[in-house]
Write a structure and sequence with these properties.
heterodimer, A: about 400 residues, alpha/beta, 7-stranded mixed sheet, 4-stranded mixed sheet, globular, B: about 80 residues, about 50% helix
Chain lengths: ~400, ~80
């Protein structure tokens, strides 16, 4: 078998999915962005309801202006890693601002959310240690664990009893165990039972990392995420997050009450061997963080929209994820059924995400919507009407 | 203490409902090539086995597992190591 033959399996899977001549739903080119919630796809204007742009800040005038100014002042890119020539004063300012926001002692910025998980996990655990992960964790957590060389154990999704049993079996390895969960899970939009997870993890003497990628700007009194919402922030050892959702840019971060986080800079290969975030990215992210902190009304609007979509789809009889959140996932019986529905939504002027196995938990076929604070009442009407018109 | 055969029998119970009707699941059946299971399904079966036998199977150890027999051997080794 040649190296390229490996790709044959992908070609076969693609062919099977697209049988019947339907268009490929993956990698659909967005021809023009009109706003945080509208774009042109296939020559027609659609409402974007699958962007994870929870606060709608990609088109915030202040964020755009900050990026423009940084472009003029510092150029298009850093052309270097943080350890070489790629640490600019604004990178360090962003790290301080994140640590301040989370009331943590240290913060570190990565060039992507994916790299934040890879970088943190590989810095914290290695061969002989244990990575204990929720079965539905994101691919970046799985990949980080694989790269670390630690023993990877999984517990059933959001099941504290399953976690408890597995930690009990570890006995004397507990102090070398990193438990990893997410705030809001990206596929079904369900929320981790974090208070219980913290209790079990700490009772067994393990460390805890929470990925707040989908909960930053969404949960908590000040938008810090699920740890804040559940009053457990002081007991979480590491909070990881991304700039590519609520903060509207690209990049990742980790904050921690442990000052040792600073040392990750010297031992994390995904941090060391990557060019640092471009000045425009850092500038718009810093401004977005300021907006997130100063405009709680965005969170209020986001939740109004989330509740509205979830309850309307429930009313229409769709099978949804278990929790109301800005990620609203609709379950379908087969990949083909989900694909047909996805095309139907685009036909009605609504763009969402098609999520198919093996990327989905339990091999489910999903249509995943994510709502934004920037969706207007009219846009929410349009999304709800499209689902109503296509009801099976 | 569970024997290799007992573990294999439990695996068959999990695998048979997932196999195509024309395929008889055996010790050396290819889990992915013949049964058509994806890697996610295989690691979910491992979750079931972990709970049944009260043990932990590191995901890393599954990389070389291609058949029910190999999975049973792995689980049996973990049982023996206590």
């Amino acid at each position: 078998m040649s190296l390229l033959d490996r790709l044959g399996a992908l070609a076969e899977a693609r062919h099977e999915l697209l049988e019947g001549g339907v268009d490929d739903p993956f990698g659909v080119p967005v021809e023009k962005l009109c706003s945080a919630t509208e774009a042109v796809i296939g020559g027609r204007r659609v409402v974007m309801a699958g962007t994870n742009n929870y606060l709608g800040l990609t088109f915030d005038p202040g964020c755009i202006q900050a990026a423009h100014d940084a472009l003029d002042e510092a150029g298009t890119g850093t052309t270097g890693s943080r350890m070489a020539n790629g640490t600019y004063a604004p990178h360090m300012a962003l790290e301080r601002e994140l640590a301040d926001f989370y009331e943590c002692r240290a913060g570190i910025v990565f060039s992507a959310g994916y790299l934040a998980n890879l970088g943190m996990i590989t810095a914290l655990i290695g061969p002989g240690d244990v990575a204990m992960i929720d079965a539905d964790c994101h691919a970046s957590i799985y990949d980080g664990c694989r790269l670390s060389g630690a023993d990877i154990l999984r517990f059933r999704h959001n099941d504290t009893e399953s976690l408890e049993k597995r930690l009990a079996r570890l006995r004397d390895r507990n102090s070398r165990t990193l438990v990893m969960v997410e705030g809001i899970y990206s596929m079904l939009g369900d929320v981790a039972p974090l208070a219980e997870i913290v209790e079990v993890t700490k009772r067994h003497g393990c460390s805890l990392m929470v990925d707040e990628a989908h909960s930053l700007g969404v949960l908590g009194a000040t938008g810090r995420g699920l740890a804040e919402e559940t009053g457990t922030a002081s007991e979480v050892d590491f909070i990881v997050g991304t700039f590519s959702k609520s903060l509207g840019s690209v990049g990742g971060f980790c904050v921690s009450p442990h000052p040792e986080l600073e040392l990750v800079r010297y031992g994390s290969r995904p941090f060391i061997f990557t060019a640092s975030p471009a000045p425009t990215v850092v500038a718009s992210t810093r401004e977005a963080l300021r907006v997130l902190r100063s405009r709680p009304e965005l969170r209020t609007r986001l939740w109004e929209n989330a509740r509205r979509l979830y309850s309307r789809l429930e009313e229409l009889g769709y099978s949804l994820g278990p929790d109301v959140s800005p990620v609203v996932a609709v379950r379908f019986r087969t990949p083909h059924e989900a694909l047909t529905f996805w095309h139907g939504l685009v036909g009605h002027g609504v763009y969402v995400n098609l999520m198919l196995p093996p990327a989905t938990p339990g091999g489910q076929s999903l249509i995943r919507c994510s709502v934004s604070a920037a969706h207007t009442p009219d846009q929410m009407d349009k999304i709800c009407e499209a689902f109503s018109a296509l009801r099976p | 203490m569970k024997t290799y055969d007992e573990i294999l029998e439990r695996l068959f119970i999990h695998l048979r409902p997932l196999a195509p009707p024309t395929i008889e699941v055996a010790e050396d059946t290819d889990l992915i090539g013949t049964l058509g299971l994806d890697s996610t399904t295989v690691i979910n079966i491992v979750l079931e086995i972990e709970d049944e036998f009260d043990l932990s199977v590191p995901l890393n150890a599954l990389a070389d597992v291609k058949t029910p027999g190999q999975l049973a051997s792995l689980v049996h080794r973990i049982v023996e190591d206590g």
